[in-house]
Amino acid sequence: MLKYLARYTHRVAISNHRLRSFENGRVSFEWKDDSDRSQTKLMTLDAVEFLRRFLLHVLPTGLVRIRAVLPPSILRPATFAREHSR
Q1: pTM
Q2: What is the dihedral of CA 71, 8, 14, 45, to 10 degrees?
Q3: pLDDT averaged per 10 residues, the chain (length 86)
Q4: Which ranges constitute the DSSP H helices of the chain?
């Protein structure tokens, strides 16, 4: 779960360098297939479907992105307890 959430804390849904082309109402972009040894692959979608998928990553009004990451000591309870028991 943490690995999944970490992808979205400071990044946009898709960076410009992954966009390859927009022709005839179709968008081509690179993506990483984690189930196939993290190979980079090319996907082409209709522009409407591309926008639909992109907009799934836009936060609703009133919600904000995570702006800070927890210190590693919080993720290790023994260390956290030792540092905060003084």
Answers
A1: 0.59
A2: 160
A3: 54 81 94 93 95 85 70 60 63
A4: 2-6, 47-55, 72-75, 77-84
